[in-house]
Design brief:
By secondary structure, this protein is of the alpha/beta class. The protein is 45% helix and 18% strand. The protein has five helices and four strands, in the order αβαβαβαβα. The chain has helices at residues 2-9, 26-36, 50-56, 72-77, 85-100; strands spanning 13-16, 42-46, 62-66, 80-84. The chain has a four-stranded parallel β-sheet with strand order 1-4-2-3. The mean pLDDT is 89.
Length: 107
Amino acid sequence: RSALSERLKSKRLMVVDKIVFSAPKTKEAARVLKANLKLDKALLIDSGNKSLELATRNLNGFRTLPASAINVYDIVKHSWLVLTQQAVNDLQTRFKNENKGKSHASV
């Protein structure tokens, strides 16, 4: 969570409605991510978007992960964190469930 908070504080976190390509082509992904969004190195978090994964797998500086696989190493390694709205919803559910399992014992 602190890695996510750090990306937010440094204004290096972007939430988009969704990332959709007409076809899973690297050239189209490069155009959208580099030219339109002005990103050079980013971790893209979505939920089960196979087209996004295929389009970015050969794109230097970019990595796509499902929300369930997000990790501190990848967040820190990439200069930008781009989440789809669905990924945000999935992460909120995940963190809510993690908090339910913690005990609230006082010390």
